[in-house]
Amino acid sequence: MIRKAQPADYPQLAQIFLDARRQVFPWQIPVLSDFEQQTAGEIIYVAVEKKPVGFISIWEPDRFIHHLYVAPQHQRCGIGKQLLDSLRQWLPLPYQLKCVAKNELARAFYTKHGWREISRGTSADGEYIILEYRL
Q1: E strand spans, 51-94
Q2: What domains, with CATH codes, occur in the chain?
C-alpha cells in the first residue's frame, strides 16, 4: 500500500534512509537526523507492508524527486516502481531527479522504467546525471 507519510512513520523512514545511504554511498557518513533535514518541506509517500518498507520524497514546485529508497531486504520486489507510479495520481508530468553517476543500480532502475538523461554535472559526491520522466 502506498500512502502519504505521517509523522509516526518518520522514525522508520529515517532508518530506511540511513541503511540505504550507507549501502549506496559508502564514502558518506550519514546519521539519522539527515532524513529530517534532507526531506524538510517535501511531500513524502510511503510504501507499507505492515510497517514502512520504502519512501519517495518530492519537492513539489519543481516536480523533483529528491529521494527514493526501499529497505535493502525489500529491494527488487517492485516497491520502487509502485512509489514512482503513485505520483501520477497527484503530480503532473514531467518529473526530474538527480542520480550519482556511480550509482549504477539506480541508473539501471530508472532507465528500465523510461527515465532519460537530460544533463550531467559534478558535485562534492562526484559526477551526477539529471534524469527526466515524460510519457
Answers
A1: 51-59, 64-70
A2: 2-133 (3.40.630.30)
Distance CA 7, CA 104 (A): 32
- SS3 assignment, position 83: helix
Sorted by sequence, the CB contacts under 8 Å of residue 61 that are 6+ apart come out as none
pTM of this structure: 0.91
Burial of 97 (0-12, 13-18, 19+ CB in 10 A): buried
Nearest to 131 by CA among 83, 78, 65: 65
26 exposure class (CB count in 10 Å sphere: 0-12, 13-18, 19+): exposed
pLDDT, residue 27, reads: 67
**Residue 127: its H or E element:** strand 126-133
Q: pLDDT, tens digit, for every residue of 44-68?
A: 999 999 999 999 999 999 999 999 9
Report CA 37 to chain centroid distance, whole Å: 15
Mean pLDDT of 93-120: 94
